[in-house]
Amino acid sequence: MGRPLALVTGASSGIGACFARALAARGYGLILVARRKERLEALAGELGAEVLVANLTKDAELKLVEDRIGAAENVELLVNNAGFGVMGRFWEAAVEGQDNMHRLHVLATMRLTHAALRGMMARKSGGVINVSSVAGFVQAPGSTSYGATKRWMNAFTEGLYLELKSIGSPVKVQALCPGFTYSEFHDVAGMDRNLIAKSLWMRAEDVVAASLRGLDRGNLFVVPGWRYKFLVRLLAVVPDGLRRWGSLVYARRAKRA
């Protein structure tokens, strides 16, 4: 059987690359999945990992990753980290980008989780980390699909958590919900980092460390950073009308900045 395996999607940079390094340090063998071959191979060479170059918005390439999970006998951890965001009003954005976001955040997460859980349930061990976002707890103008797909990810993970708990399974699932994190994510989305207070930015390494601590404890939702923990708790008790008003105020201020 060898070492337990961890499969990490979106592993070529940012949170995904930090997961890869942290899991290698924990003794996992690694299968790293991403679109950018050169970056992926450089990281794999550093960590002694297997590489799967795949665009998970493409059915055939997603199926290759599913099949690799199914063929392995010891995938003990799946990290569904691949994701992206786009800025702008929904109806003005290219529909292809919106479609790819739903395919990646929703369909790929669902299918890879299904593939991984079948083996984990048979072995009665393992875990799945779905990298969601604080945006999954609140909608905001300019990121309609992103917020909606991350909210789906939270609900999906919670449903799995309850199913597993209902039968007393030791298999763990987690929704990791970071806030603003230093990575290429916001550069790709076209966001000006200067619009966000420096105190709100977190290091990807700290986000990953919080996630793995939470996984050890069996936590369903992991929200790194005390500021974001407070925000999520506040959102849970704020009336819907006030929450929507706050989102509109934030969006208008960001537009004027």
Descriptive keywords:
7 strands, Rossmann fold, seven-stranded parallel beta sheet, 53% helix, 13% strand, 257 residues, alpha/beta
Kindly describe this structure.
- With 257 residues, the chain is of the alpha/beta class.
- The chain has 9 helices and 7 strands; from the N terminus they run βαβαβαβαβαβααβαα.
- It has helices at residues 14-25, 37-47, 59-71, 95-123, 144-166, 185-189, 204-217, 226-237, 240-256; strands at residues 5-9, 29-34, 50-53, 75-80, 127-131, 172-176, 221-222.
- A 7-stranded parallel β-sheet has the order 3-2-1-4-5-6-7, with helices on both faces.
- β1 (5-9), α1 and β2 form a beta-alpha-beta unit.
- The longest helix is centred in the middle third of the chain and has 29 residues, at 95-123.
- The chain is globular.
- The termini are far apart.
- The mean pLDDT is 92.
